[in-house]
Amino acid sequence: MKLNIAVLAGDGIGPEIMEQAIRVTKVVCQKFGHELITRTALVGAVAIDEVGNPYPDETHNLCMNSDAVLFGAIGHPRYDNDPSAKVRPEQGLLAMRKKLGLYANIRPVTIFESLLDKSPLKRDRVEGVDFVAIRELTGGIYFGQPQGRSEDGNTAFDSSVYTRLEVERILELAFQFAMKRSKRLTVVDKANVLATSRLWRQVAKEMEPHFPEVVVDYMFVDNAAMQIIQWPKKFDVMVTENMFGDILTDEASVITGSMGLLPSASIGTHTSVFEPIHGSYPQAAGKNIANPCATILSAAMMFEYAFSLMEEGALIRKAVEAAIVAGAVTEDLCEDKSKALSTSGVGDWIVDYLSK
Ligand code: IPM
Ligand code: MG
To answer: Which of 10, 14, 43, 343 is most exposed, with the fewest beta carbons within 10 Å of its own?
Structure first.
């Protein structure tokens, strides 16, 4: 198969972790006889520096003309500390999501047995956790208009807006996920307060009869935040709107004890994007210490979701798991920091494993 991939490394540790993911993708392609074409483009703060736009047209065109996008990270402290900055790296990410129609962000939350003790939760709570969080990604309060300030600058407003179509397509995907898994779906909302949530709940209820085998549970977001900590095993497929999903998926990721390990897929109407869920970690940029595994696992998701190459994806996951078990990990996962491998060291180990 021919794999035409756009590589958007972005900011901070993005380039370092991406390098390892590409190496891994290359070996897997060699092993299975696929032809790999990678083309790079600018995104984020580096794109602002070079061309004044965090998601330049050229980058968008490349994404549109590729089979999949591998994405590193976005963000720079220069902008975090400057609320008056007119152009921000994060706008690039939001623009990419909107323009590629990436309405669904899929984050599997799974536990690595060998890392259970890293979890901030007690072992019995977290052992066996395995769920998928599906976050709506192109609607809600992150995109709704009007957004802004009053003329005197003393009032600010954001609008949360959802149309039936936006709600239907994400719920449809969530029901399908539930059908493929244990047929349990949790719809997270704030229907006791928000009009958008009431639309979500209404649409979900209307869809229930189309998926008679799926048991649907409706949960308020504040309760969901609590349950993720108290008894995360109760979840199998969770679906929610953009901002709730942003918050809950970060919460869900830390209970695994290894945020540096979690990948995600964003899918929608055009090319899908695969990215680690962690950020640009600017303190570590250029030091060759960041954990490349979430990006490598994002490449695994890419094989599976964008190309239906399941064996290839599974092999990458197996290699990452083997590296962790063997202690071939970066300092974030190492008790004894002197034994930690570098970013490229972990890449070497995994590439070696895959080449055997
Ligand atoms: C994420 C990120 C982004 C978001 C930021 C960078 C805009 O935190 O993918 O969760 O919150 O949507
Ligand atoms: Mg976020």
So the answer is: 343
